[in-house]
Amino acid sequence: MPESSATPGDRRTSYAQAGVDIEAGDRAVGLMREWVEKTRRPEVVGGVGGFAGLFDASALRDYRRPLLATSTDGVGTKVAIAQALDKHDTIGLDLVGMLVDDLVVCGAEPLFLTDYIACGKVVPERIAAIVKGIAEGCVQAGCALVGGETAEHPGLLQPGEYDLAGATTGVVEADDVLGADRVRPGDVAVAMASSGLHSNGFVLVRHVVREAGRTLDEHVDDLGRTLGEELLEPTRVYAKDCLALARGVDVHAMSHITGGGLAANVARVLPAGLELELDRSTWTPPRIFTLVGEWGGVEQLELERTLNMGVGMVALVNPADADAAVGLLAARGIHAWIAGKVLAGEESAHLAGSYGQS
């Protein structure tokens, strides 16, 4: 029979032929299982494979007035760096950092997290590597990875492409919520060092790298490693450190420094009539930040409103506790310093002076 006269019933099409491999997805779940188990908290009910993750909320009876907090986010175009380098075991750490460090600024303890990975083709080993990073981040944050979804989107994403996002839920005692209503004139800003670029501004960074003719595999003497290794440095997970800080000293507010940069994010936790002056001379941004500026001809103010400039988290604390806060964080391996003070003025934050020199 001529091909043109074949009827639809003569053709046999499967889901796999269309581009979705269910068996590969099942293998991916099997490979990731051991990493998910490492995040288990006592409140988790059941295991991997259910339609929904279960978390025993009876522990919340110990709270006088428990408030649930939630946050959702992704890692943006940093995934393009992981894909270009074919290194996928750290990008999950970035996801956790972006989620739980948003959550903890109100004083909430992260309880559990779910993830969503969309890809052009399920490669079980690659998916397992991504989930391994997510699990390691959850362990660092003290929260459980209770569920997730891996979706295969052939035709929408190329076989080597993927994106990931997630959501996390935490709890805080109503009387202990941190925020703008606690901030007072004279409060001191304690800055916590970032591990690098974290997961923001990569549209700008990738544009600069591309236009400057730089390659990810080139060794950059000023960085002491390849450019790709520097760009893929995982986001620092501050959750446990911030909770310890809130328990140990009089913290009034915290700000996670993400998209929008240092000043814009700190301004989000300032009440009307107060401003925060941050002194640039108290720290020296890591070299990657100034290299982006030099390679791309990016003005300082543009860098500052796009990148974290070496500060990943800021705590506004009672001035009497400022030195204790720095010491507590140092004991936990977090480089921290007094970077500014809250003053009477407009509801804003700004940077003064010039950056210190290393």
From TrEMBL:
All copies of domain PurM-like C-terminal, residue ranges: 184-348
UniProt GO molecular function: ATP binding; phosphoribosylamine-glycine ligase activity; phosphoribosylformylglycinamidine cyclo-ligase activity
Protein name, UniProt field: Phosphoribosylformylglycinamidine cyclo-ligase
Record-annotated PurM-like N-terminal domain positions: 67-172
GO-annotated cellular components: cytosol
Broad class of the protein's primary localization: cytoplasm
Pfam family, one: AIRS
KW Ligase (keyword) present: yes
One GO BP annotation of this record: adenine biosynthetic process
Membership in a protein family: Belongs to the AIR synthase family.
Subcellular location: Cytoplasm
Entry EC no(s): 6.3.3.1
Pathway: Purine metabolism; IMP biosynthesis via de novo pathway; 5-amino-1-(5-phospho-D-ribosyl)imidazole from N(2)-formyl-N(1)-(5-phospho-D-ribosyl)glycinamide: step 2/2
Signal sequence annotation: none
InterPro entries the UniProt entry points to: PurM-like_C_dom, PurM-like_C_sf, PurM-like_N, PurM-like_N_sf, PurM_cligase
Swiss-Prot/TrEMBL catalytic activity: 2-formamido-N(1)-(5-O-phospho-beta-D-ribosyl)acetamidine + ATP = 5-amino-1-(5-phospho-beta-D-ribosyl)imidazole + ADP + phosphate + H(+)
Gene this protein is translated from: purM
Enzyme class, UniProt record, top EC level: ligase
Keywords annotated in UniProt: ATP-binding, Cytoplasm, Ligase, Nucleotide-binding, Purine biosynthesis
